[in-house]
Design a protein that fits this description.
Helix content: 10-25%
Strand content: 25-35%
Bound molecules: MU-OXO-diiron, calcium ion
Number of helices: 10
Largest sheet: 9 strands, antiparallel
Number of strands: 29
Strand order of the largest sheet: 12-13-15-16-17-22-21-20-19
Shape: globular
Radius of gyration: 23 Å
């Protein structure tokens, strides 16, 4: 994501002063220990699977290659490109009314806050599909942030309460029914269609309950913000994750300075430049200091109960949550979660009882369990460290008061137990058969590594691990590096070529066949710039990988200024939903949109000479009706 100030992404700047070891340090040493390159370090899968019955069987039957499409070339064009033989259709762009009788989108951005609240939000991100079948279902879509030039007719030079309200209405989540009709996917009226915004009443559950003193800010608890990635539970609910919530608060107070916890979460006087605090005291950190405690959570939404209140599940910790990938192991739920900022950690929540039993008892499986943070050891092993009050350093003697305190200060607790710093941990994906876990590390300063990742690490990489016995509830694992992203023209250690050079992997997900889909979010301060080593990689894109062979192939390239994010499929894998977020945003290579010329960077998808770029969901199908990726 690129935000108001594009000199650098705020996530690129660490707010972790702890002396904890970084993965780059570990990798660096590990490569030295093995006397080889990253490739030598990578390989727990090849060694552990060599000679296995599964491998022998697959060699005999020669299964079809997973990747069957022709790679799309890297491109800086203002266009969305998919492989030959595939089609892409735009669905529910920003401003689409949720009902047939709802307010139409106005291309001059003159829709009011009240109208925006009845329309699809801005900046589509993570999403899930809740199928009724292969041709109909509910889409739940996150709206990560708002582009303050494109959202208003007159830009954001002057901030008003109405403008804050419109931005709040553009954030959050859209639940919308979609269906395939006469060769096309359409939005359809439904009693389930609704918006959850930055102003929707919410509640809290788990150790930090709704009446906890830390949550007693001015006014009722409202909204969810910076909804980045997502998750889907086996009981049919949607999880939306609050990422860069710290950027919305600020103050004009001359005397306010952040305390240690506020600093740890990157809360600063100017925020990320949204200026909401200048027009709405709810977001003034000096006036309403407890408002921040209401953010940084994973939020559960029941798409099938349109009147239900979103619940912030506090047992999953308070971080800049990127996503919440849910898997089942031993009948319990396990939720993997990245905390996206440079030098932060990766977490998992392990339920402490069968989720089915808990649901039958009317309890939430997300309220009962243990939160862990990962430590990656030098020798390719790893440990999950519990963040439990009274365990290890999290004691009264060290200033911890109870489990709620540990969760409100999750990052500090993780510092204390000795978690491993990572280069911006983003999405997590779990292979449907092998149960191997993949984590995108989008980029970072490198944290001192000399071999891999780089110092700095502007292209990122993907790390994977296997939990002991493939059991996600285990507390130990073995890890390696799946791919070092980048361009060999700038870094000869990169083993990629024209069909798959890429940078800043972010969104990641498996389809049922085991294809790994990789989506990129190169900062708009780097995209297409030779000075940043990004001139051959083109616009942000999506690639597919075969985890067994390591083959990677570019599947889609997005328009200018966008990131590609969000991934969902119909059950038959013949329809794929992908999001194009923030096309047309200020991009160093292309320029700065203004109220007079919002089209300076992109005019996708409408290409209306009077319009402006819009985030949208894109529906991808194969022209012969086949599975996506074949
Ligand atoms: Fe919202 Fe870390 O991307
Ligand atoms: Ca990102
Ligand atoms: Ca992301």
């Amino acid at each position: 994501m690129t935000r108001v100030n594009i000199d650098s992404d705020p996530d690129d700047i660490s707010s972790n002063p702890s002396p904890n070891e970084a993965l780059a340090d570990v990798l660096s040493r590990r490569s030295l220990l093995k006397g080889g390159t990253v490739v030598a370090a990578a390989g727990f899968l090849t060694t552990s699977m060599a000679g296995s019955p599964a491998q022998a069987a697959s060699a005999r039957s020669k299964p079809k290659a997973l990747l069957g499409f022709k790679a799309v070339p890297a491109s800086p064009a203002d266009a969305l490109t998919v492989p030959e033989g595939y089609s892409a259709q735009v669905l529910i762009p920003w401003g689409t009314p949720l009902s047939d009788s709802g307010p139409s989108w106005k291309k001059d951005a003159s829709n009011s806050a009240a109208e925006q609240a009845q329309q699809v939000g801005m900046h589509h991100d993570g999403m899930s599909f809740f199928p009724y079948g292969n041709t109909s279902g509910l889409l739940a879509v996150n709206h990560e942030y708002s582009d303050t030039t494109l959202l208003y007719t007159d830009g954001d030079a002057v901030m008003t309460k109405e403008k804050v309200d419109k931005a709040l209405a553009a954030h959050g989540v859209t639940i919308v029914r979609v269906r395939h009709k006469r060769g096309k996917w359409i939005r359809q009226d439904s009693r389930y269609n609704r918006r959850i915004t930055g102003s929707t009443p919410v509640t809290f559950s788990g150790p930090v309950g709704p009446t906890h003193p830390a949550l007693k800010a001015n006014g009722p608890a409202l909204g969810t913000l910076n909804n980045c990635s997502n998750g889907q539970t086996p009981w049919g609910t949607y999880l939306t994750c609050e990422e860069n919530w710290n950027g919305y608060l600020g103050t004009e107070s001359a005397t306010w300075t952040p305390n240690a916890e506020e600093k740890r979460y990157g809360i600063a006087k100017a925020g990320f430049g949204y200026k909401w605090h200048t027009a709405d005291p709810r977001f003034d950190i000096a006036v309403n200091p407890k408002e921040v405690n209401r953010f940084g959570w994973v939020v559960e939404i029941d798409p099938f109960r349109p009147g239900s209140t979103p619940v912030k599940r506090t047992a999953l910790g308070r971080t800049k949550h990127e996503g919440a990938t849910v898997v089942e192991s031993q009948g319990r739920v396990v939720v993997y979660m990245g905390d996206d900022q440079d030098s932060e950690y990766v977490y998992k929540f392990v339920g402490d009882a069968s989720w089915r039993k808990l649901i039958r008892r009317g309890q939430s499986p997300l309220d009962h369990g243990t939160l862990y943070v990962a430590k990656f050891n030098d020798d390719g092993t790893g440990t999950w460290l519990p963040l439990v009050f009274g365990k290890g350093p999290l004691t009264t003697a060290n200033g911890w008061t109870d489990q709620a305190d540990v969760l409100l200060r999750t990052r500090t607790a993780a510092d204390a137990v000795g978690a491993t710093k990572l280069d911006r941990p983003e999405w997590v994906a779990v292979h449907p058969d092998t149960n191997d876990v993949y984590l995108t590390l989008t980029n970072g300063k490198g944290n001192g590594g000399t071999v891999n990742p780089r110092t700095p690490n502007p292209y990122g990489h993907i790390v994977r691990w296997r939990e002991k016995h493939g059991d996600h509830t285990a507390t130990t694992f073995a890890w390696d590096v799946f791919v070092l992203s980048g361009d060999p023209a700038y870094d000869p250690k990169v083993k990629l070529g024209p069909d798959n050079i890429h940078g800043s992997p972010d969104g990641i997900g498996f389809d049922e066949s085991g294809r790994l889909w990789i989506q990129t979010d190169i900062s708009n301060s780097s995209q297409n710039l030779a000075s940043k080593g990004y001139d051959h990689i083109g616009n942000n894109q999506m690639l597919a990988a075969d985890p067994k062979t390591g083959e990677i192939r570019r599947f889609l390239v997005g328009p200018r200024g966008c990131e590609i994010t969000g991934l969902a499929f119909t059950p038959d894998q013949r329809t794929m939903f992908v999001n194009v977020q923030h096309p047309g945003e200020t991009t160093t290579a292309w320029g700065t949109p203004t109220p007079a010329n919002p089209r300076a960077v992109s005019n996708w998808p409408d290409f209306d000479p009077q319009g402006r770029a819009r985030s949208a969901t894109v529906v991808i199908t194969k022209n012969d009706g086949g599975k996506i990726g074949t």
